[in-house]
Amino acid sequence: MKIDFSKMNSEIKNNFNNGEKYFEVKTFNDGLNKIMHGKLIPGASIGLHTHTDSSEIIYVISGSGKNICEGIEERLNPGDVHYCKKDSSHTFINDGNEDLIFFAVVAKQ
After folding, report:
1. CATH superfamily of 5-108
2. pLDDT tens figures, 73-108
3. Would you list the DSSP string of 4-39?
4. Residue 91: beta bridge partners?
């Protein structure tokens, strides 16, 4: 099944999970999995949240930032992947000077 993000409308998520500023996202959701193409503007973040019934995989396409998962901070650059396993908490932060473009999959478990 092809998912064509270029044909989807973007949503603006303000202060998502009590994060800073906003991020823009296009989402496919079949009830079990969310597949997202997102953009965090400079200074924006997705606030700390816990995946109680899912895991999340984030692939950085462009830009850079950091992810803090279970208190461990990791730098993320283009081509890097972050994995947040079920029952873990994480936050995603664009601390760079350009948009952080990413692809993410949240899979229910």
Report:
1. Jelly Rolls (2.60.120.10)
2. 999 999 999 999 999 999 999 999 999 999 999 999
3. -GGGSPPEEEETGGG-SSEEEEEEEE-SSEEEEEEE
4. 68
